[in-house]
Write a structure and sequence with these properties.
About 35% of the residues lie in helices and about 15% in strands. With about 625 residues, the protein is α/β, with parallel strands linked by helices. β4, α11 and β5 form a beta-alpha-beta unit. α2 crosses α4, α4 runs parallel beside α11 and α13 runs parallel beside α19.
């Protein structure tokens, strides 16, 4: 460390950083950027986003007295530099590993992590709450919200901005405008930020005038509001443009070069003690300082292992063999096939066309696919509007992010019985991204909603059949959940013939995979690909396939033939399929021993999928031990 990173090796906290001179900061930024590249080459994580915020991170910790001053990050994969500068440099190689540091900032990990930020667009609201609380107490500490990486397309950001403009506060919002989320940013805000300009000379004159008026007592709260509104009108007239932020009485500065560390420090020092809400707009490049990441920031958002010298992404030797196809790729190819047959089908995704493979249809039919930005609630209601006029939307959202569209699904789709398909990618445990990204709650949350069909395919062919079924007339709001990636080869050989002819699956029907051996009175009911973890044995095994409606005929058959029923799901054990089976048995007056296996009543941390399955007791060995004990 001392040889390769002479400055970074000296920094164990931001207090050490603040002992450096401004002239030393460019070198520190270079070392920090090189350290992140070196570490992530062998310990995979989110690369491009953090490379784009190096200078901003250093400048914020240099100017503000963290942790007394509060930094609230939005979209946590921007914050690797923050983690390294705040005492976690020597543990950074454990990032995203079980027992290691978390993939995103979280308050229990460090006093410098002020708020959870695994999902986007919450920083302004959270920071405003902090700033308001501080204002009610001592009022001397600063609060900074760092929003960017596409998060300004989320509705919560605008709800926060609206409140910022009305609530007395001294909040500073830093808008990190890199024209990206994971895929390129979309929408009117992207275009607006791209063209925004404000005169630096004007801002200097305005600052001096405001300071003078305040010193002479002419700028009380009532007068300040009138003067700001008059000023914004004059400014809009002179520049030929209305500034949305200043239109909300939020002081705007920028756009500034987010990679000029000296200028960033100077700007932050100049505006940090200004009274009232402020927004600093900086322009950055996602992947800055690493050519491959700058050229293709989508691929290098989370590239896996790579050669830091050549930029070659490294593929495990086992991948040269036949590997299981990913569920998201099956979705993407199948959606295009269905869209070619059904002209009413349209595709919708909130900022994840590459991750969910909707880019396959997007490339072939751009006029029938819509990336709505990081706006899950809008995505569902937009889909409902399309459905109301006769289109058939396939709306693909990561399960964890779909939590933000709960009311939209109830009020704007299910209530009216609209025909749309909600595909929940990354359902169940997702691995190294941890608790903020596990799709743990979708089944338990959605099961009570009327007018919903909820299904989960056990394999890739079943996903195709369910997608085909969902787009048939009269199916209503149809939810299909499936996990990240594919079925592990350790439990099943790769399925090479997944492109099967599609056929309708009768809604609410499961299937018997294996009858119990003679004399065995135990059966396993599973839903989704987690069923592949059920080991061979004398017990019966049934794939329920539908959470709602349940296959009551199959359940009755199972209850008549077995005394003990084990339910298995890759979702919350409370309120999920096991709960549904128990409710049905109680309604029928049937008494059977039921053991529910699934995710526990606590947030599951990060680790590899095999590690996490073992941790929560739904790996093959744990299931086998439970079944043998029964």
């Amino acid at each position: 460390m001392t040889t390769h990173y002479p400055l970074l090796s000296q920094i164990d906290s931001p207090a050490d950083l603040r002992r450096l001179s401004v002239k030393q900061l460019p070198q520190l930024c270079s070392e920090l950027r090189a350290f992140i590249i070196e570490q992530l080459a062998s310990h995979p994580g989110h690369l491009a986003s953090s490379l784009g915020t190096i200078e901003l991170t250093v400048a914020l910790h240099y100017v503000f007295d963290t942790p007394e001053d509060r930094l609230v990050w939005d979209v946590g994969h921007q914050a690797y530099g923050h983690k390294i500068l705040t005492g976690r440099r020597d543990q950074f190689h454990t990032n995203r590993q079980m027992g290691g540091i978390r993939p995103f900032p979280f308050p229990t990990e460090s006093e410098y992590d002020t708020f959870a930020c695994g999902h986007a667009s919450n920083s302004i609201s959270a920071a405003l709450g902090m700033a308001t609380a501080i204002g009610m107490e001592d009022g001397h500490r600063h609060v900074v919200a760092v929003i960017g990486d596409g998060a300004m397309s989320g509705g919560l950001a605008y709800e926060g901005l609206n409140n910022v403009s009305e609530t007395p506060n001294n909040l500073l919002i830093v808008l990190n405008d890199n024209n990206m989320s994971i895929d390129p940013a979309v929408g009117g805000m992207k275009q607006y930020l791209h063209h925004m300009h404000t005169s630096s000379t004007y801002n200097r004159l305005r600052y001096r005038l405001a300071k003078s008026l305040t010193e002479h007592g002419y700028l009380n709260n009532e007068r300040r509001g009138r003067i700001l509104r008059f000023n914004n009108s004059v400014k809009s007239f002179l520049l030929g443009q209305q500034n949305i932020f200043e239109g909300m009485n939020i002081r705007y500065f920028g756009p500034s070069d987010g990679h000029d560390i000296k200028e960033l420090v100077h700007t932050l020092q100049r505006i940090k003690d200004m009274k009232g809400p402020k927004l600093l707009h900086i322009r950055t490049i996602k992947g800055r300082g690493y050519a491959a990441a700058e050229e293709d920031p989508t691929i290098w958002h989370a590239p896996g292992k790579f050669d830091p010298e050549t930029g070659e992404r490294l593929t495990p030797a086992s991948s040269r063999e036949v590997r299981p196809v990913k569920f998201q790729d099956v979705f993407g190819h199948t959606l295009l096939e269905l869209a070619e047959q059904n002209p009413d089908i349209v595709g919708i995704t909130p900022a994840m066309p590459t991750g969910c493979s909707m880019n396959i249809m997007m490339q072939a039919m751009p006029e029938r696919t819509f990336d709505v930005g990081i706006a899950e609630g809008h995505a569902v209601t937009f889909a409902a509007g399309l459905a109301r006029e006769g289109k058939l939307p396939f709306c693909n959202i990561y399960s964890s992010f779909a939590q933000r569209a709960y009311d939209n699904l109830i009020h704007d789709s299910a209530l009216m019985g609209l025909n749309l398909v909600l595909c929940l990618d990354r359902a169940g445990l997702v691995g190294e991204d941890g608790a903020t990204h596990h799709g743990a709650f979708d089944m338990a949350a959605l099961r009570p909603i009327p007018n919903l069909t909820i299904a989960s395919p056990m394999d890739e062919q079943e996903l195709r059949h369910l997608m085909y079924t969902a787009q048939l007339p009269g199916k209503g709001t149809f939810v299909i959940r499936y996990p990240r990636g594919g079925v592990s080869q350790s439990v099943r050989p790769a399925l090479e013939d997944w492109r099967c002819p599609m056929q309708e699956v009768k809604v609410g029907t499961g299937r018997c995979l294996r009858q119990a051996a003679e004399g065995c009175r135990t059966a396993v009911l599973s839903i989704g690909p987690i069923g592949w973890n059920v080991p061979e044995g004398p017990w019966g095994h049934y794939d329920m396939r539908f959470l709602k409606p349940l296959d009551e005929q199959l359940l009755r058959e199972v209850a008549e033939r077995h005394d003990t029923i084990v339910t298995l799901e890759d979702g919350s054990r409370k309120g999920g399929m096991g709960s549904a089976v128990l409710e049905w048995l109680a309604d029928q007056g049937l008494s059977r021993r039921v053991v529910c296996l699934g995710l526990p009543d606590n947030f599951v941390e990060h680790g590899t999928l095999p590690q996490l399955y073992q941790l929560v007791g739904i790996d093959s060995e744990s299931i086998k031990n439970i079944l043998l004990s029964l």
